[in-house]
């Protein structure tokens, strides 16, 4: 079985900066990590590798510095790493990203694709399902556990509000995982050394152009148009009431709520 895990390198901070002209994140100079949901997908892939003798290829679309995230995945135990990077891909929204990743995965080949449910810098949960639609394969989202039944059949435990679904699906298929689905393993010393001696394969626009529609990639090819973006504003210091009896405190709170038209 050939497993492909799609990951994203995301900012490791709540103090993100925004480009006022393009309304996109400025990633330069911001510490980055592998998206937590994606890391759960890596761990699940590695567990399947140990059980089935599968090969695991980790794929990331991003700027050149995403090489660091890919090497971390290699140090955890992934077999191959592919960076999908080109200036033409800059500013892609979820639809354009899924279109580009679909082209890359067609080039690489796969039996099973794992992704995180969503990225902490966007929280859209759209790329995984859109990627499955682009490839025309079945998908199961919110996966918590996967077991192989042999013959290309998988049994998936899927979280659904206050219960779970058990779904049987045939490969090729795509699964999106929650961060709590699996505890990611630590990198080993041998893994780190091997990762930084390994090759990270690059796929650019030129490598994928035969599988891409140029009108569906990059900022200009993205159907999502952000009219305005802004960072979260810090809340001001509240009013502290001291020296009041219980009845006086209740009266003061009710007065304030009435003043704000809450009650």
Mean pLDDT: 88
Distance between the termini: 60 Å
Order of helices and strands: EEEEEHEHEHEHEEEEHEHH
Q: Provide a count of the helices.
A: 7
Strand order of the largest sheet: 11-10-9-12-8-1-6-7-13
Tell me the overall shape: globular
Characterize the largest beta sheet: strand count, sense, and whether it forms a barrel.
9 strands, mixed
Return the structural class.
alpha/beta
> Which spans have pLDDT < 50 for at least 5 consecutive residues?
none
Description:
This protein has helices at residues 36-52, 67-76, 94-108, 127-135, 189-197, 205-208, 246-259, and strands spanning 2-7, 9-11, 17-18, 25-26, 32-34, 55-61, 80-84, 112-116, 139-150, 153-160, 163-170, 173-177, 201-203. With 263 residues, the protein is an alpha/beta fold. It starts with a strand and ends with a helix. The mean pLDDT is 88.
Strand and helix layout:
Layout: E1 2-7, E2 9-11, E3 17-18, E4 25-26, E5 32-34, H1 36-52, E6 55-61, H2 67-76, E7 80-84, H3 94-108, E8 112-116, H4 127-135, E9 139-150, E10 153-160, E11 163-170, E12 173-177, H5 189-197, E13 201-203, H6 205-208, H7 246-259
Parallel strand pairs: 1-6, 1-8, 6-7, 7-13, 8-12, 9-12
Antiparallel strand pairs: 2-5, 3-4, 9-10, 10-11
Helix pairs in contact: 2-5, 3-4
């Amino acid at each position: 079985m050939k497993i492909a895990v799609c990951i994203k390198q995301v900012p490791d901070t709540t103090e993100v900066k925004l480009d006022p002209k393009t309304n996109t994140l400025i990633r330069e100079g911001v510490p980055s990590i592998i998206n937590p949901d994606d890391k759960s997908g890596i761990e699940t892939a590695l567990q399947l590798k140990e059980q089935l003798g599968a090969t695991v290829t980790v794929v990331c679309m991003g700027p050149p510095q995403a090489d660091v995230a890919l090497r971390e995945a290699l140090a955890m135990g992934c077999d191959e790493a592919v960076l999908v990077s080109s200036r033409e891909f800059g500013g892609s929204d979820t639809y354009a990203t899924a279109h580009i990743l679909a082209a890359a995965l067609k080039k690489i080949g796969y039996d099973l694709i794992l992704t995180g449910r969503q990225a902490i810098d966007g929280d859209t949960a759209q790329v995984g399902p859109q990627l499955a639609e682009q490839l025309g394969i079945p998908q199961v989202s919110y996966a918590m556990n996967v077991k192989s039944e042999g013959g290309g059949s998988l049994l998936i435990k899927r979280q659904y509000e206050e219960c779970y679904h058990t779904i049987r699906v045939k490969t090729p298929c795509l699964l999106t995982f929650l961060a709590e689905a699996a505890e990611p393993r630590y990198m080993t010393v041998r893994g780190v050394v091997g990762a930084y001696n390994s090759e990270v394969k690059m796929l650019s626009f030129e490598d994928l152009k035969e599988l891409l529609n140029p009108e569906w990639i990059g900022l200009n090819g993205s159907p999502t148009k952000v009219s305005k973006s802004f960072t979260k504003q810090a809340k001001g210091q509240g009013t502290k009431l001291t020296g009041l009896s219980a009845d006086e405190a209740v009266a003061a709170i009710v007065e304030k709520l009435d003043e704000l038209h809450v009650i």
